[in-house]
Specification:
Layout lengths: L15 H9 L12 E6 L3 H4 L6 H7 L12 H13 L4 E6 L1 H7 L31 E4 L10 H7 L4 E7 L1 H14 L3 E10 L3 H14 L2 E3 L1 H13 L6
Parallel strand pairs: 1-2, 1-4, 2-3, 4-5, 5-6
Length: 238
């Protein structure tokens, strides 16, 4: 019998036949939540989300790296996700661009952007989604949160077995981080309603590819259900 699956909004731009072929070939296998997860909020800073909700064309006038209102429309979801981890006392880590060291080590992408490296606001977090004083803010020079950082050492030290990621951009730093998370052996989840990208096409295509190969892409509601299994100390439903 052919496996049935819910056609989510981001899936609708992908031919349904491709989903079915991926499922038949063993891709899109759902993952099981571990016992000790950590949440990483990737690059939710003013330089990427902008200082306020506005269309992409306007946001790009403020910062050439901005993603328009793709982040702002989902702020309540981000707040709910972060609150979930904080309430359960699981680690919450925020990443941002290491703009000082990028002057020497090179930037994260080939894009040429006219951004002042001394801009005091670029790396600020919006008040609606920002780290607590005691939460780690990880500076990175490249797209992946693992590349030449101490993140893996942190996760090993705290015996983390599952990495949940949100933020952006879906096709850039988030995707690179997800691939490396899988490569380091962590069960990895992407929260589909807590990701942003300046290109909706790239957003959908990369969710599809990550879900097929490196992670389980799921909604915040689905993630909450999986995390219930940790409290109950029973295997989560896949």
């Amino acid at each position: 019998m052919e496996e049935q699956f819910e056609m989510k909004e981001w899936m609708k731009s992908i031919p349904e036949s491709e989903f079915r072929n991926y499922v038949k070939s063993g891709h899109r296998r759902p993952l099981t939540m571990g016992k000790n997860p950590a949440l990483v909020v990737i690059d939710v800073t003013i330089g990427f989300v902008g200082s306020k909700p506005q269309p992409l064309e306007e946001a790009l006038k403020e910062y050439s790296s901005a993603c328009g209102d793709a982040f702002w429309k989902d702020v309540p979801q981000y707040q709910r996700l972060i609150a979930l981890f904080r309430e359960k006392k699981y680690p919450v880590i925020f990443t941002r661009a290491d703009r000082y060291n990028q002057q020497f080590a090179g930037k994260a992408t080939k894009a040429v952007r006219q951004i002042d490296p001394n801009d005091p606001y670029f790396n600020e977090f919006p008040a609606a989604v920002s780290p607590l004083k005691e939460e780690w803010v990880l500076d990175k020079t490249k797209a992946s949160m693992f590349f030449d950082t101490s993140l893996n050492s942190y996760l090993v030290k705290h015996q983390i077995d599952t990495v949940v990621v949100c933020g952006g951009s879906t096709s850039g730093c988030l995707r690179a981080s997800v691939v490396d998370s899988c490569s380091h052996g962590y069960t990895t989840f992407v929260v589909e309603d807590c990701c942003f990208d300046r290109s909706y096409f790239a957003h959908c295509a990369n969710l599809f590819d990550m879900d097929a190969k490196y992670a389980s892409v799921l909604s915040l509601d689905e993630l909450e259900q999986k995390m219930v299994s940790i409290d109950q100390d029973v295997p989560s439903l896949s």
